[in-house]
């Protein structure tokens, strides 16, 4: 726990309240005594703070589930949980392929979700799309229309480099977004805290927040999409710099020997990303191969990872070989992260890994390149894309 010195009793109570709320959210069965022990605070401090939250209607006591009782209790112990309807937040990811939005309650449960086509290239159009989504999600819960303070925050995940403090998009593949103050523009319409951050960092933070019970102290979050990114989570903090993207693993340099043994210097994105797989597929179709894939698309703009995976699962050997080559590259970059940082766990978030056979290949190739005890000690998990 990081203890910061405050300049007043009110400031100390405020900071303690933040720590306690954070612990309640991240603990499946949060009990006062355990919260006090883990935070290093006194039981009266915890009790007083939680009682205030109960009066405010933010949290509520609940009986501890029967399966958690081990005997020896007089009065049945109670845990503390957030009240679902006490507040809501909205998260929107402006991804490379589509836009996804969710409305969640104070327990982190999804109340409503939406998927839309990818955001517009022009900033003004994108801003209109985002506000339309926010308004639509707010309209799903009557209290968000009638009670002030029910919407507690909005988070927008954007690919590329983001100034999180200023809420400004620094660098994105959609040129018209660059330098735009998305946070400030949204605050003009919505008087709530608004956080703009890299989308992969948001994915890593969201995964960590969903964990209950025992969680890895440090994990690498390997996100495979158009490119590769890999933020490192330590406890509940992202270690990569706030203004430095998501841990741009795809831009690391490799001396790579392909299946033919020829060595070349490449970036990780050039051999292991979905973009690399699309490029290889286009090359093969131009050579008169991948006939089934060629039938399903007229040009490169119609090529999708879904088409490729469907053909792979249908048993197309040419597609399977190209996917395996891409997975081999992913395993190499994963091994580089593991051998350098030595995380407890690597969490893989990739549409390509929805096929169990691809997961098995990635694990096999990666562990073959993990150094020393990493091959046994590092856990590999897969997060549903």
Keywords:
six-stranded mixed sheet; 3 domains; five-stranded mixed sheet; globular; Arc Repressor Mutant, subunit A; alpha/beta; Nucleotidyltransferase, domain 5
Structural account:
The chain has 3 domains: 9-82, Winged helix-like DNA-binding domain superfamily/Winged helix DNA-binding domain (Arc Repressor Mutant, subunit A); 86-210, ATPase, nucleotide binding domain (Nucleotidyltransferase, domain 5, 2-Layer Sandwich); 218-383, 2-Layer Sandwich (Nucleotidyltransferase, domain 5), CATH 3.30.420. The chain is 40% helix and 23% strand. It has helices spanning 9-26, 32-39, 43-56, 123-138, 142-146, 182-187, 199-210, 268-272, 274-286, 291-296, 305-313, 317-341, 356-369, 374-377, and strands at 59-63, 78-82, 88-94, 98-105, 110-117, 151-158, 161-163, 168-171, 194-198, 218-224, 228-229, 232-234, 237-238, 253-257, 263-267, 345-350, 379-383. Strands 10, 11, 12, 13, 16 and 17 form a 6-stranded mixed beta sheet that branches. Strands 5-4-3-6-9 form a 5-stranded mixed beta sheet. The protein has a two-stranded antiparallel ribbon with strand order 1-2. Strand 10 and strand 11 form a beta hairpin. The protein is globular.
């Amino acid at each position: 726990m990081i203890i910061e010195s405050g300049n007043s009793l009110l400031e100390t109570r405020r900071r303690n309240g933040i720590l306690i709320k954070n612990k309640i959210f991240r603990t499946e069965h949060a009990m006062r005594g355990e919260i006090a022990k883990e935070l290093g605070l006194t039981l009266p401090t915890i009790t007083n703070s939680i009682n205030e939250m109960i009066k405010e209607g933010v949290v509520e006591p609940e009986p501890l589930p029967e399966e958690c009782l081990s005997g020896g209790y007089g009065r049945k112990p109670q845990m503390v949980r957030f009240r679902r309807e006490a507040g809501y937040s909205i998260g929107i990811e402006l991804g490379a392929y589509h836009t996804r939005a969710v409305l969640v309650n104070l327990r982190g449960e999804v109340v409503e979700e939406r998927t839309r086509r990818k955001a517009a290239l022009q900033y003004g159009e994108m801003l209109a799309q985002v506000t339309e989504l926010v308004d639509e999600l707010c309209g799903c819960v009557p209290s968000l229309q009638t009670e002030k303070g029910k919407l507690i925050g909005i988070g927008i995940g954007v690919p590329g480099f983001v100034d999180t403090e200023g809420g400004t998009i620094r660098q994105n593949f959609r040129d018209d977004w660059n330098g735009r103050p998305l946070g400030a523009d949204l605050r003009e319409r919505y008087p709530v805290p608004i956080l703009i951050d890299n989308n992969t960092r948001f994915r890593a933070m969201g995964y960590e927040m969903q964990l209950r019970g025992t969680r890895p102290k440090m994990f690498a979050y390997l996100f495979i999409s158009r490119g590769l990114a890999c933020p490192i989570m330590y406890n509940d903090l992202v270690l990569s710099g706030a203004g430095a993207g998501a841990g741009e693993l795809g831009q690391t340099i490799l001396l790579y020997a392909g299946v033919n043994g020829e060595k070349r210097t490449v970036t990780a994105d050039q051999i292991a990303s979905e973009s690399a797989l699309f490029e290889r597929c286009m090359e093969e179709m131009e050579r008169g191969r991948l006939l089934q894939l060629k039938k399903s698309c007229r040009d490169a703009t119609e090529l999708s990872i879904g088409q490729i995976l469907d053909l792979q699962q249908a048993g197309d050997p040419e597609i399977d070989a190209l996917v395996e080559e891409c997975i081999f590259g992913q395993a190499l970059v994963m091994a580089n992260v593991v051998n350098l940082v030595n995380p407890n766990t690597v969490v893989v978030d990739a549409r390509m890994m929805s096929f169990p056979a691809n997961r098995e290949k990635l694990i096999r190739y990666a562990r073959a390149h993990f150094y020393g005890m990493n091959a046994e000690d590092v856990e590999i998990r897969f997060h549903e894309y």
